[in-house]
Design brief:
It is a single chain. This protein is of the alpha/beta class. The chain is built from seven helices and seven strands; from the N terminus they run αβαβααβαβββαβα. Strands 3-2-1-6-4-7-5 form a seven-stranded parallel sheet, sandwiched between helices. It is globular and about 45 Å long.
Length: 175
Amino acid sequence: MKKIANEELGRKSVEEFKKAKKIPVVLLLDNIRSLNNVGSAFRTSDAFLIEKIYLGGITGTPPHREIQKTALGATESVDWEHSPQPLELIKTLKSEGYTIISIEQVEASVSLEEFTPGKEAKYCLIFGNEVFGVSQGIVDQSDICIEIPQFGTKHSLNISVSLGLVVWEFFKELK
């Protein structure tokens, strides 16, 4: 087997990405402190045609070299906006018809493997702080909370891993 060179992959240009049909999903990063995790969210969003990323609360924003280190230019292709008051943003997104989904371990959460996104719906997926998770106020405003099943000794995954798993599952159903 021969590795495929980057030039042979046939990836979209930034202009082509901007014009491409996206899946009906936006992300809200709730007080993410690691700029590497923010960059990873951009890169994953580029890979799977996410509409937009909202950077909530203290979440860092581009341009920043730590974000760029993991985003590898995806801050140029993926639309984003800083939202200092995520609860206000959630109200707006609900009024625009988005289903608000926190990725969090809560009472009555739905397992990721049991959730199937509807083809006609729009979704806002919320990922929380590396230590505290999604804030309770945002959980309270969520329509659904999805939990990623885990079978080891740890109780959580890194946000970039969680985001990749969840976004991939949504992409598979909605593309």
